[in-house]
Amino acid sequence: MRLVAIMIAVIALVSGAHASDNASNLSAVTMAVADTSRPASDTTRDTDRKPVQTLEFVGIESGDKVADYVAGGGYFTRMFASIVGSTGHVYAVEPTAFFQFEHFVKDVAELQSYAVTHPNVTVTTSAALEGVRFPEKLDLFWISRNYHDLHDKFMGPVDTASFNKAVYSALKPGGVYVILDHSAARGAPANVTEDLHRIESSSVRREVEAAGFKFDSESSILANPADPRTAKVFDQTIRGHTDQFILKFRKPK
């Protein structure tokens, strides 16, 4: 009986520790999203982008080393930086191919100014594949609404097999690779990435798993069944409300 009591106590202690960790992580995420220093250009998008639920799904924690690929103006970079804290680091990567877009140049300049006062953020500009090299192993590689661009002409297009292998190499064993993107209709032609800026989640899974990653989970928090997935994502009839998927992959330990 005494042994049973001890086992129950140990289980309760472990469960309590896990609950405490989860609560702590949720608190850090909530605080990051609620941070009043976030620019209005970011916070006005929160309703559509659901950052609390998204970051909970990702599982980012204090001390993590994170890459935000195609960070743009840093919508996620700022929140990542808040969560990982002084013992973590965020590498905001800005591929040079995007600098042909005027708004992107402005956004990057603003993020670079932010990094000046936030030493746990580094903003780098580089060619697509060069941007997947980092001075330390990562816990998380994040790419939001831009994985499909790797397939497009203005990006090269990028050899996605080499890109995903480079991401695999950049991560620690057990590290996660998270891709958020606009959904394409099932059976969409390959040029849907160029024409509509969408991609099938099944295509992403096939490409990423081919690099050695194991599929972990998928979130439907940004799904929109009402999106016919036949319009360009910038079309005003659907902009901000596209059907989106979030896929989480893990590098085996």
Characterization of the model:
This protein has nine helices and seven strands, in the order ααααβαβαββαβααββ. α1 (2-34) packs across α4 (51-58). It has helices at residues 2-34, 40-43, 46-49, 51-58, 75-84, 102-116, 160-170, 192-195, 201-209; strands spanning 65-69, 89-95, 121-126, 138-144, 171-182, 214-219, 244-250. The chain is of the alpha/beta class and 253 residues long. Strands 3-2-1-4-5-7-6 form a seven-stranded mixed beta sheet, with helices on both faces. It starts with a helix and ends with a strand.
Structure class = alpha/beta
The quaternary state of the protein chains shown equals: single chain
Number of helices: 9
Strand elements, count = 7
Order of adjacent strands in the largest pleated sheet: 3-2-1-4-5-7-6
Low-confidence runs (pLDDT<50, min 5 residues)? 1-20
The run of helices and strands is: HHHHEHEHEEHEHHEE
Largest sheet: 7 strands, mixed
Roughly how many Å is the radius of gyration? 19 Å
Helix content: 25-40%
Residue fraction in strands: 15-25%
Kindly report the average pLDDT value: 91
Shape: globular
The N- to C-terminal Cα distance equals 38 Å
Notable traits:
253 residues, seven-stranded mixed beta sheet, 7 strands, alpha/beta, 39% helix, 9 helices, single chain
Tell me briefly what this model is:
It contains 9 helices and 7 strands; from the N terminus they run ααααβαβαββαβααββ. The protein has helices at residues 2-34, 40-43, 46-49, 51-58, 75-84, 102-116, 160-170, 192-195, 201-209, and strands at 65-69, 89-95, 121-126, 138-144, 171-182, 214-219, 244-250. A 7-stranded mixed beta sheet has the order 3-2-1-4-5-7-6, sandwiched between helices.
